Amino acid sequence: xxxxxxxxxxxxxELLRRAVNSxxxxxxxxxxxxxxxxxxxxxxxxxxxxxxxxxHNIVYVRSExxxxxxxxxxxxxxxxxxxxxTGLDDDDYFTPTxxxxxxxxxxxxxxxxxAAFLFTDFLIERASGRVRRTLPDVVSLDMLKLSNFxxxxxxxxxxxxxxxxxxxxxxxxxxxxxxxxxxVEQFGLGRKISRDGTYVVDVESAxxxxxxxxxxxxxxAYETFCxxxxxLFTHKDARLLKLNVFAYPQAHFPLSEVLASxxxxxxxxxxxxxxxxxxxxxxx
Length: 284
Fold this sequence. Notes:
The chain has helices at residues 13-24, 44-54, 69-79, 98-104, 141-144, 158-163, 175-187, 212-229, 235-241, 243-246, 255-261, 266-283; strands spanning 3-9, 31-38, 58-63, 84-89, 93-94, 115-120, 122-126, 129-133, 138-139, 155-157, 189-194, 199-202. By secondary structure, the chain is an alpha/beta fold. A five-stranded mixed β-sheet has the order 3-2-1-4-10, sandwiched between helices. Strands 5-12-7-8 form a four-stranded mixed β-sheet. A three-stranded mixed β-sheet has the order 6-11-9. Helix 11 (255-261) runs antiparallel to helix 12. The chain is globular, with a radius of gyration of 19 Å.
């Protein structure tokens, strides 16, 4: 049974090598890796052309100009031949048994209470070592109204990603989160299969720190998310979702937002106050 892995890359050759090697070294071998090169100019093209010639399970797609990660992922998904699919970012990598664990658990997608997709806990890699990010066992639509409790990658049927339209390139950020939301809305719950972290997020190699300019991108993503899915949100839901924006270290978070949250109940006010005080403590 063929499993597809989609990956987009742009001028991160050394990190890309590690990501690719983590797929090629999986214990489960029936994998095709579909790589979209988003206009790289750092030797990525030559590396991937050689790799595709040497390995039958590498599908290389290139755009001469950068079109963005979402369009790249959607193009890779359109080329995928596997019945099931998962993704990988070029600055992250898999542990060796990740695909095998998903394959062993794939029947959960078709059980009496079918899952929209499967996911696992993940590992955060820093210079000081790895820590595991523990996620809920089950993720519902109500939970996703509050935050992305899934992480950045899932495993599902390829046809399901195509049915919901793939990644929305109009989202300024939160593209993966917004796609998980649509999948759960249409196909059911998201289910965790393992407490082992089989996906490694390398926060040292990639610049995951949000800038002041970047903070406005997340505000825009929040607004777009609410416009797109507002029919499913109460005012309280929208208020709690907005906390995801304020949680970014450089995002401006005025006290007036905390006070305004009180109209939506104790839960909303408590969460707002908690994030506000944590941000204040980091500034002191």
